Each structure stands twice: as C-alpha cells, then as structure tokens.
Amino acid sequence: MLYIAASQAVRSLRQVKADIVISLAGLVVGLTASLLMALLIRDQMAYDTFLPDHAQLYLVDSILAPVDEDQDAGPLVRWRTPPDLAATLVAEAPEVDAAARLLDDARKIRRGNAAFREFVTWVDPSFADIMHLPAVEGDLKESLADPGAVALTQTMARKLFGPESPLGKRIELDERTTLRVRAVLKDLPFRSHMREVMILASSASPYSPFSAPQSRVNGPRTDGGDSDPAAARTTGDVYTYVRLRDGADPAAAQATLDGLAARHWGAGHAGGQSPQLVPMTGLQLHAGLNPDRLNRMYMIGGIALLTLLIPCINFINMATARATRRAVEVGVRKMGGARRRDLVTQFMLETLILVGIAMVIALSLTELAIPPVNRFLDARLSLDAASPEVGAIVAGLGAGVTLLAGFYPALVLAAHRPVAILKGSGPGTAAPVVDRTARVRQILMMGQFMLLVMLLVGASVTYRQQQLLTRDRVSYDTADILILDANCPESIRVGLQHIDGVKGVGCTGMESLERSRPLVTATLNDGHAVRLNRVAADPGFLPVFHLPALAGQLPDPKRPSTVRHKVVINETAARALGNDLPEDAIGQTLHLPGVDGDVQVAAVVPDFPMGSLQDKIAPTFFVSDPGGYELMYVKLAPGDRARTLAAIDALWRRVGELTPSDRYFFDDHLNSLTSLIRHETQMITLFSLINLGMACAGIYGLSAVTAERRTKEIGVRKVYGASLADILRLLLWQFAKPVLLASALAWLPAYLFLHRWLAGFAYHVDIGPWTFVGPTALALAIAAATVAGQTILVARARPVLALRYE
Asked: pTM for the whole thing?
C-alpha cells in the first residue's frame, strides 16, 4: 500500500512542474537558512564542554550597584571581581572545592635573539585543580606550584623554541628574570573562552601582578611617579574561577555567595558588589557578559525562522490553490475504495518527497556556505554527516517542515466528495471547500507579507543606525593615527617626535580601547562618592585627537610639574561631580583610593567615544601613570605613510627595543567596533531580499492559479465592455487588500522589536512614520508588479477563447 501511495505521489508531482519549482526553490532556501542556524546554536552551546567535569566549573562575575541616585546608571555586570574573593570562598563557602584568580598582562618575552611582547596569564596554583588542561609534556600543577616556572601552549612553544622540546629551558621576562618551562599544554580549542591563553605562570612569582603592593592593586599612582609594571590596574581587575564539590547545589552555593557579599563587599548597598556564579559552559551566551552575541543569536534565529515560514506558506497556498485540479483524481480513487486516510498518506508522501529533495540540495548549499559563514560570524560550524547531532537536526527539520507545509493541504485535498465531482459539478459543488481554502490562503498571504514588511523595516532601521554610529558619533579627528602595542619606552617616545611625518605621540593604557574600563570611586571634599572610569594617559594622548579643552588647560608634556596630582575629565564626569558648567569643575579636589594625596581637575575635554560607539559615554578621568602605559598613539602627517612606517621600524631597531607585537590604525579599531551592526545590517538586508524574492514567487504562482480559475469571468467581463485596465484593477485590488492589511498589522510588532533593539544603543535613530510607510510601499509595488504581469497575459486573451475554456 505504501509503495502504491509513493508511486501515485511521484506521478502527481510530475504533473505540476511550475508549482513544484516555486515550492522547491523556497524550501531549499528556508532549509539552508535553518540548517545554518541549527549548526550555529550547536556551535555556541559546545563552548568549554571539552573540560572534564565542566558542569562543576564556574566563573564568578560581579554586579556593581550605582554609587548614588544622581548618576543615571543601572547595575553593571563585569567579568571581574574583588581580588580577595577566591580566598574568602575557599575559607567560608562549603560548596566550593577550589577557587583561583586569573589576571593577564603584556610582558616582554625573550628567547635567545628572538624577542616578543606577549600576554602572560598569571593564575593561582589552585587553577590546576579547577581546569584540568591536557599537557603534552610536563605537568601544569607542578609548573604553577613553582614561582620560577612557566607553562606554554604548543603554539607558543613552537614560536619561542621551534621544533625542539622546550621542557627545562628558560625564557627571559621583562629583561629582569628568567622562567623555566615545566609544562607544554595542548592548544586550547576554538570553542573555549580562554583560547587566546598562551603562557601560564604562577601568581606566587615575585613578578606577578598579585605580588605587587596592595596599594597598587587598589589603584595605580596618579602623582606622576613610576608604577610597578606588574601592578593590577584597579580594584576588581581579577577573574575568579571556582569548582564546586561533587553533588553541591549551585543554588545553595549562590546563596552562600550572596551572604559573603553582604558581609565583605557591601552587596545591596550603593557602590557594593554582588558576585554571581556563571556556569563555564554558559559564558558564551550570557546576557550580562556577552549581550551582543546573545542578541545576534536571537536575530539570526528569528530571521532563519521567517525564512523557513515564508516558503512553507507558499507551499500551502500553491497546494490548496490547485486542489480543484486534482478533484477528479480524488473522486476516482475514492470510488475505487481509497479511504481518506490513504489519500492523506499519499499527499503527505508527496510533500515528504519534495522536502527530501529540497533537503539534499540544502545540505549541499550548507556545506558550501559554511566557510563564509564561519568568517562572517567568527564561528566554527561543521556539517559532520556521521554526527548524531547533525542527523537529529536534519531529521527534525525534515519532519517538521513536512508536517507544517503538507498536513493542511493533504486534509483539503482528501476532503473532496466523489459523487459531486464525478457528476460533473465538481467546482460548483466543491465551492464550500474552495471558499474555505481561499480564505485560509488570504490569511497565510497576509502573514507572509507581515513577516516581509517587518524584515524590510528592520533592514531600513539597522542601516540608518549603522550610518549614525559610523559617521555622526565620531566627531573628532581619527585620521592617520597609528597604534603601537608597546609600553611607551622613553627612548622610543622621544625618537618618534623627531621623525619627519610624525605630528604627535601619546601613551595610554589598554583600557583606552576597551568597552569596560577600570572603575574608581572618587570622593569629593564633602564626602560625596562618584564612580569614574579611569584611563592612564600621558599629556600627549589627548592632543593626538586634536581634542580641545572646554575649560582649564591641558597639562603640558614638556613641563612635568603640570602633570603631578592633576587629572583631566570629560564633560560627563564634570556633570557627575555636580557641576553645571565645565568651568565649575576646574580646581575641584578628588580623593582616589591608593593615591597619596588628593588630585585636582586641571581641564575638561569634550565627550568622545573610543572603546564603544553604542554605549553611553561614561564619566571618565585621564591620569598620568607611566607604569600603566601599554599603547602608543602616533599621529602621522598626510603623505608618504609607507616611508614614515619604515622610519618607525628603523628607530625601534636602532634603540634596541622590542618590535611591537601588533600595529594597526585607529580607524581600523573604529571599524571593528561597528562590525557587529554592519554584519546585522548586511544579514537582514540579504535575507530581506531573499524573502522578498520568495514572496514574489509565491504570489506569482498564486496569481497564475487565480487568473486561470477566473478566465471565464474575465471573458464575460470583456464581452460586456470591460477594458484591460478594469480587469487589471480588479485583480490587483484583490491582492493589494491583504498586502495593505498585513503591512498595517506588521507595524506594531516591528516597532516594539526595533524599539527594544535600539534601547541597547545609548545614541540611536528615531522611528518615524516613514520608517513603516517606505517598506510598505515597496512591498505593495513589488506585489503589484508581480501580479500585473500574469494578469495582463490572461486579460489580453480574446473573449471567445476565454469563454470556451470551461
């Protein structure tokens, strides 16, 4: 019986070639998009699952409450926690088996004549009890227990030692000491939040940030004096990892953590910190720590779902629209003894065969699309045919689409009554069935264009928002600024100033490029506390961007006395300190933790974004701290850029300093800040065009069936004097009504979604009436043009042929 039904299904499919091509093409596109989305979800869910006992591993993040109600700021989620949290957890939290701190900083690494500037990851010895990282040579636990040892990944070992074994050999650190290699670790997989870790060293080393004086951990010096390069930059500048005991309840561990936070770190009070356990496998999509990535996943998932729904709607519409063509077939089969269940099985098999063909093509397209998608999304998607997960994805999508697209048309087709059909009055007698499906088709077409208009509106808004961030937000001079990844040695800084083609040099910390900057609680003379972002910057940093002083005078780099105990703040910081005008902030005294003596505000500069273009500009102060400089900003003169860069490299070699490990232009950094929204805009635009094409194909097929079924009506109207324009207007209005109604229904959900999306930007475009009118007019015009082409062909036929049709 199943073989007979399958044979009937194949023969039936071969008789409706045009409809099948439209339906098949749509299903291929929808299944390809859904396969890529499912593989992306699988990729993101696999992060850090390579670690043994990963279900027991957690990172502790920190939720900071606002300092006072005057600052318009909600709780801030940070990856880092107070430095003493790990020891407190081990001593007072019974659910915690082990805890370890982690902090990385850039250091000079030398091996023989080869010198590099690399990030060293400093961890407590207990880190080896939490992260069981596989070693190729040596042992990580023994390496971390030795303050004079270091562990390298395979990639770093090859970089420093080539093909020879590095075990037992030494590397030079900061030209001050040597560390012996006691372990070589396997390279961490791409699906690890720690994949950039290359060098692991013990926090017990006298050269680690944790061995710096406590005042350094709480905050670097701001008096112009030298700071220890090993010092941590700010309170809470530490990652804390924990392993829970076997069988420990994470909820109970969090409750214990809340109690400790209330006693030790002022949780629940202004300025307090509330630590929170985050599963290691959940870091990649954590709403507080990785909001951009999570929002992108939601957006990609929504677009993939829409791209699958539209071809399914097309399939249902086309299948039900051609139902009367198969009425005689249904009547004959029912008279031959076929039950309704048998017919439903046949029609579902037709859908299954079509979906199977579409799935095969979609799998091939997915394989071709994976490399560019990986580059686009910075992912590692793979279509492993032998993987049970991939098999489940393919089977689930195939079954779901078959049911979604085929079940309702199968019921409609199997519902024809054989007696009425075989008496020759099929279309007339079957009118109730046809009328019901016509109404359903109209509703589905409305839903299709609702989704389409929402995509078009989204594409319009994301494009305008991208333009706002890339053009309007950056109002300061960013041209020809070179960033050198170096800690600002004096010989290099002075030498750069004497190179033709160099107009200015400034030094700053890595926080100048980071979205989340170190926070310092500044106290005014009246006891008022204000949380400010801190950026280490020498007096030459702000002039590189041609930023003027709105009030006061910028410190003179040629006069060191003007730098001591002086800070520069931005406009937002001036307001946060209680000043209405920038001039009122000049001379204001601030007390900063870890600083001997108070500092005074010397100047106020305009607000300008650097680490993020979408966030609200935070209150920030710029302070001289030679020990905290990690980057050099070099303003180049327009002209022969290649010659200037060659002169900079020659200077580096001449003074014997290390070659910068990285060098790039500030404009490239700004482009990276807008890469996410650019990708979102490109993605929405691409899928809007794809869905627009599928919607047009669907409405074209539907209009062809409709025009064919109304051929006799059109002939009669032409006999009674109807013109081509009259008939065209009649049929266009039939399709325009659901499109207009669908567009109106799409406006509210589109507005709510875009309003929520734009809320993630401190500065965003407005959603005005034209935001919706334009895409609606576009969808209507394209639908009308699609329908008009088919309608004109039928309407131009001679009436005698039309009346002879039936």
From this structure: 0.71
